[in-house]
Amino acid sequence: xxxLGTAFMVAFGMMFLVLVVQFNSTSKPVIILxxxxxxxxxxxxxxxxxxxxISIVMSGVGLFALAGVIVRNGILLVxxxxxxxxxxxxxxxxxxxxxxxxxTPVILTAVAAILGLIPLAIGLNMNFISLFTTGDAKLFIGxxxxxxxxxxxxxxxxxxxxxxxxxxxxVPSMLVLIEKFKTRLFxxxxxxxxxxxxxxxxxxHDSLNDEPIVSPIxx
Length: 219
Prior knowledge:
By secondary structure, the protein is mainly alpha-helical. 79% of the residues lie in helices and 2% in strands. It has one domain: Multidrug efflux transporter AcrB transmembrane fold. The chain has seven helices and two strands, in the order ααααβαβαα. Strands 1-2 form a two-stranded antiparallel ribbon.
């Protein structure tokens, strides 16, 4: 338990550092990583509602896998919002448009993962030898493998169901709230700030960094 807690905190910190470098911001990585906490809440609610037992080790491994999917969905929304802001769209409209546009890939990713995990969660077994020799797969549900893989699968399923919808609602809302708060804070400090201007400047600097460096040819 102590090892898993330490590993989770180390992974959490490394994801935060990578996101800070990617977005050149601390507020956006916080928004993305808060989704993991909400998805863990969904996992606990799911296990409580269906009266299931939690395996510390396998549920912990499932949380690591769940965090990767949830963070990836958050990055999709934040990046697309930044792209719309750099094109001159207003903050609230950009957040709403990003959620609407990215809703399909986010939901499809979650649905595909959930459908792929359901056979593992319920312990769907088949005999491949008899399938190829006699054509009878001898399908049955349950078995010893459910005790090992069931908690991991249900952890990801509950977390994806809860976290996917929160991603589409909470990330745009928190993004708008934090950017509005930063605008008011900078205004009180006597400085000008807007999410649209910040995104446009970041796009300009990125374009400068992407330009090839041409070295002069000596004579």
